[in-house]
Write a structure and sequence with these properties.
The protein is mainly α. The chain folds into 3 domains: about 190 residues, no CATH class; about 50 residues, no CATH class; about 40 residues, no CATH class. About 50% of the residues lie in helices and about 10% in strands. The chain contains 11 helices and 9 strands. A 3-stranded antiparallel β-sheet has the order 5-7-6, with helices on one face. Helix 7 runs parallel beside helix 10 and helix 9 packs antiparallel against helix 10. The longest helix is centred in the first third of the chain and has 26 residues. It starts with a strand and ends with a helix.
Length: about 350
């Protein structure tokens, strides 16, 4: 995998955010080209895209914060960061805060345990560039802001929304390739031919639960305390005792990032090259997308293994729960639209 797309000196471009940005720009460009055919001023579309980007990032981040199991970590980062244990910091011994800073292991030394913790940060929940975005939260946030924007500009919402039927899956498909390169959103172990293995290294923790620099301390594994570094899938497998000491690759896992990228790009191809010129009523494209994508995402979620908020006895993820009412509502709107158009 390649979490850093490329770097020149101290300048680096992370794979995930670079491809996410490229996907967004490509989607906006195609929608901008299509806007005049729909009777929409391209400048209005560009203004809306900027608002949608901000609202989408905020919505995606908020859904992650509140639904993916990290809410109290963000609260404690503001109120009492000594309660937050970062795996790559907590094993670093210290006598003063300066020891943690010097070891690049946070900024606070716990007076009782003599271990490092992160600095107080009341804005951590908003810092999406540190990782943690949930697509459906971003999608719903962007839709809400676009609805208000279009009403104020006097533009029919559903006419403009059809532009998103091909723009959103294009941006999503390219963005998921960034997930693949960075190693997030990984799948369950598999013995199938498409299984991917992620790199890393695992070793036993040293005296007093110390680890080499940049390693995570995994305290509660079946093999006892371990030190590990690597991509998220590797760390997950090490923590659950699925890897031997000295392992340098994870178990093969479903490439769920590639599954979703392929699915999203297939939706883009359908909506852009076929449905775009065969829409019978305003909203047909976006409502069909709101049926197709959540169903595909619902299925792919069963193959994922990363933390994404599990409910109902760890049966359904947050995205799956949101998908159910979205599909139901979209089906109702499609039925109404076809009835009115016939």
């Amino acid at each position: 995998m390649r979490p850093i797309l490329f770097e020149i000196g101290d300048f680096t471009l992370p794979s995930y955010y670079t491809l996410l940005t490229l996907g967004f720009l490509a989607a906006v460009f195609l929608a901008w080209r299509e806007a005049p055919r729909k009777g929409i001023d391209p400048d209005d579309l560009l203004d809306m895209a900027l608002y949608a980007l901000i609202a989408g990032l905020l919505g995606a981040r908020l859904l992650h914060v509140f639904a993916d199991g990290y809410f109290w970590d963000y609260v404690h980062l503001c109120t009492d960061p000594l309660q937050v244990e970062v795996p790559s910091f907590i094993h670093v011994p210290c006598a003063t805060d300066a020891d943690c800073v010097a070891a690049d292991a946070g900024a606070l030394c716990h007076p009782d345990t003599g271990r490092c913790h992160p600095a107080r940060d009341c804005l951590a929940a908003l810092k999406f560039w540190h990782g943690g975005l949930a697509f459906l939260g971003g999608f719903l946030g962007a839709v809400a802001v676009c609805f208000v924007f279009l009403r104020r500009r006097g533009i029919p919402f559903l006419k403009a929304a059809d532009l998103a039927s091909f723009g959103v899956p294009l941006g999503l498909g390219v963005g998921r390739l960034g997930c693949l390169l960075s190693g997030c959103c990984y799948g369950q172990p598999t013995t199938g031919p498409l299984g991917l293995r992620f790199t890393g290294f695992v070793t036993r923790a040293g005296p007093d639960l110390t680890c080499p620099p940049n390693y995570d301390l995994l305290r509660d594994t079946p093999q006892g305390p371990l030190c590990a570094f690597g991509r998220p899938a590797f760390l997950d497998h090490a923590e659950h005792g699925l890897l031997e000491l000295g392992a340098d690759h994870s178990l093969p896992v479903h490439p769920t990032q590639a599954y979703e990228a392929a699915f999203a790009l297939a939706l883009f191809a359908f909506f852009y090259f076929w449905r775009r010129r065969r829409i019978r009523f305003d909203g047909q494209g976006i409502w069909e997308f709101c049926v197709a994508y959540p169903i595909g995402r619902f299925v792919i979620e069963f193959f994922r293994a990363d933390d994404r908020g599990l409910w109902l006895g760890d049966t359904l993820s947050t995205s799956q729960l949101i998908a159910i009412p979205v599909v139901a509502y979209a089906l109702v709107r499609l039925r109404r639209g076809h009835r009115e158009a016939s």
